[in-house]
Design brief:
Blueprint (H helix, E strand, L loop, with lengths): L3 E11 L1 H16 L6 E7 L3 E4 L5 H4 L2 H6 L3 E4 L7 E3 L2 E9 L9 H18 L4 E4 L4 H8 L14 E4 L2 E2 L1 E8 L2 E9 L4 H6 L6 H12 L5 H4 L6 H16 L1 E5 L4 H15 L2 H5 L2
Parallel strand pairs: 1-2, 1-12, 3-4
Antiparallel strand pairs: 2-6, 3-5, 6-11, 7-8, 8-9, 10-11
Helix pairs in contact: 1-10, 4-9
Pfam families: LplA-B_cat
GO molecular function: ligase activity
Subunit structure: Monomer.
């Protein structure tokens, strides 16, 4: 059976606004039939706190701490909670809702796309698997997450190793296209992460940070050998090809495409109206 060819873009390290604008532009171009489905890898310069589309900055985020750590800041077009993008591989997948291999429901499509990430972890020699919330309490906490921190919250078909979450992803559907992007943590500065959010008091913060250690983990904390960014890129690129039964063809953006992305970045993702007014 012939495998479908998707585009593969490794856009390297980009600013927060560029990263979100490129994901949005790819979604748009795919919806217009200009490009086939895409898998993209990227990093962040500077390290960045991204927040979910529906989060309230004033209520949840300590912007003084964000500035003190010299972090970038951006609101994602996808839902979910706050993510510190630092020592990680970030991926995005752009594919039509009508694609024959994409289930109609969000959770099932999430599982199919995440199969590529699962295979990537296996290629790194890690015993990753999908966890499904089973108890009424777990299912209820999906609807009412107590924490503003992404990796602190359970979700359907999340990827875990040794019972702890190793990748956090979010999805949106616009213009008939699925955009799923997420973080694969290589290393994590937990103290920095927890300094970026607001808490009722110090005790609550300490309790949440302590509980977090049991829920989430970075690859290099549990890997038998040190995984560098290039190792991760190689493993997850092949993982996506295996998991989604596709060929990935490298693609470089044209100057015209880049100009459009920069325009979108400055008009939307660098504007206070987008990032703060919710």
């Amino acid at each position: 059976m012939n495998k479908e060819t998707w585009r593969f873009i490794d856009s390297g390290f980009g600013s927060p606004s560029f990263n979100m604008a490129l994901d949005e532009a790819l979604l748009e171009w795919h919806s217009e039939g200009k490009i086939p489905p895409v898998i993209r890898f990227y990093g962040w310069d500077p390290a960045t706190l991204s927040i979910g589309y529906f989060q309230k900055v004033e209520k949840e985020i300590d912007m003084d701490a964000v500035k003190a750590h010299k972090l970038g800041f951006v609101r994602r077009p996808t839902g979910g909670r706050g993510v510190l993008h630092d020592k990680e591989l970030t991926y995005s997948v752009i594919v039509s809702e009508e694609h024959p291999d994409m289930p109609k429901t969000v959770t099932e499509a999430y599982r199919v796309i995440s199969e590529g990430i699962l295979k990537g972890f296996h290629r790194l020699g890690m015993d990753a698997y999908f966890a499904v919330p089973r108890t009424a309490e777990e299912k209820d906490s999906l609807k009412n997450p107590r924490s503003a921190v992404c990796f602190d919250a359970p979700s359907w078909y999340e990827l875990v190793v040794e019972g702890r979450k190793v990748a956090g992803s979010a999805q949106t559907r616009q213009k008939g296209v699925i955009l799923q992007h997420g973080s694969i943590l290589l290393d994590l500065d937990e103290d920095m992460l927890f300094s970026l959010f607001k808490y009722p008091n110090e005790r609550v913060k300490e309790r949440m940070q302590k509980a977090f250690k049991n829920k989430a983990v970075a690859i290099n904390e549990i890997s038998s050998k040190r995984i560098e960014l290039e190792d991760a890129k190689e493993a997850f690129k092949v993982g996506f090809e295996e998991g989604l039964h596709i060929n990935l063809e490298p693609y470089e953006l044209s100057q015209e495409e880049l100009d459009y992305v920069y325009k979108l970045a400055s008009e939307r993702y660098e504007s206070d109206e987008w990032n703060f007014k919710r």
